[in-house]
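seq:
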Amino acid sequence: MNEEMAIKCELLDAMVAEFEALIGELPEFGYEAPEEALNLMKLAARHVTGVVALARAGFHLLPPAEVAARAAYEASVRSAWMLRPDDLFEQEARWAAHLRGEVAYLEKEIKEGTAMGLDMADIEERRAGIADFCEGVSKLLEERGHPPKQGLPPIPGMLEEIQQR
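struct:
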């Protein structure tokens, strides 16, 4: 590894360590959106740690490092997008849209697993629980004038909404 790459790896390691140290100092949020945004940032930190490990292992691991870097980027953007509005209910509406994406992912997983002859009962139960919870929260948000979107904007759209395009 060249010196420039080693310096960048050290900087990324330091950023992840600083983030992890700050996590313990955070207050209880009391809402779903900031909790999920924090989870996404923790995930992004894990991806960055993976990028650093792959970089240190050698240039031949650039393809999986690029995938991990993209995943860190997307998790970070989604986290920032979720928390962008000042209104807590609007943040929650964005969280609900994010959660609907999780339900859609599980539906796809169930469909594919069923087509392969797998027993998907556990995943279907999980999907149903998440969907029921999400729809209950969505109904409450709608009553307060903050209906969640049916789908998430693409990453470029999220970047525009957080004024980072």
